[in-house]
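A brief tutorial aside. Many learners find it easier to grasp structure tokens once they have seen a single protein encoded end to end. The record that follows does exactly this for Ribokinase. Read the sequence first, then the structure, and try to relate runs of similar tokens to stretches of the chain.
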Amino acid sequence: MNRPRIVVVGSLNMDLVVEAGRAPRMGETVLGDRIHFIPGGKGANQAVAAARLGAQTVMIGAVGQDAFGEQLVAALQKDGVVTSAVKAVDGVPTGVASILLAEGDNSIVVVPGANSCCLPEDVDRNEPFIIQADLVLLQLESPLETVIHAAKLAKHHGKKVILNPAPAQALPMELLCNVDYITPNRTELSILTGMGAEGEQLEQAMENLLELGIENVITTLGAEGSAFMRSGERLQRVSAYKVPVVDTTGAGDAFNAGLAFAIASNRALPEAISFASKVSALAVTKLGAQAGMPTLEEVEKFSFQKV
């Protein structure tokens, strides 16, 4: 079987992960338990996850000319990700994410740094990778103009485009009309549509995105699994899987990479979402977004139980 070819256009960050018994209230100081420096960034996490599953993966992005940047590129290369399209920017620090882990959940503050220097011309310079790809995977930690340009270029060459709309923001039609699959969580769906996404409102919010011209809307719902809608069809649900949770930081990135791998492998959408859910479930059983990304063999051998 030919390995699927995926291009990820997105962010590379060094994650500064602090573990604490609970999150502090505003104005409060609490003592933490441990601190870790772990390679991350939504784009890099998704690239590593796709590569571990067996995809030929290319990363387009930017880091600073500093120790963090060198470590992030080395981490990608260790997993077989092609990094020749990751540029090192002089005078701008590598992006950093401050992550608090408390009570099995996380809160994150991202300082983009060199990620802001990943520009449309960088995408153009690496157009041959997009021409050779089966699918292009995007997020929103890079400049919006770059994300829009990458989506347009991918569609120009007839490639499938997945947009993980995180961090959430209102998005222009110029981007949405070039997206085949969009994968918000419930909060991101609310921000994208300007309406609630709880209970019966979930289907209406997803339908609103379909009406904007996106053919496939997949909403991740945490322990509730996920829901998806396609043009002209009703909402369908896919169950989550029971696993011992250690770190949820990379759950969304694992899901998106799993979805990209499955779609690029020509799996039907319900099967692709189920596969992505399994990848995401295994990813939260280890500390660190990239460290937790499973291999295809691990996904296929694990005995999953639905929630």
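Self-check: The radius of gyration is 18 Å. If you spotted this yourself, you are ready for the next section.
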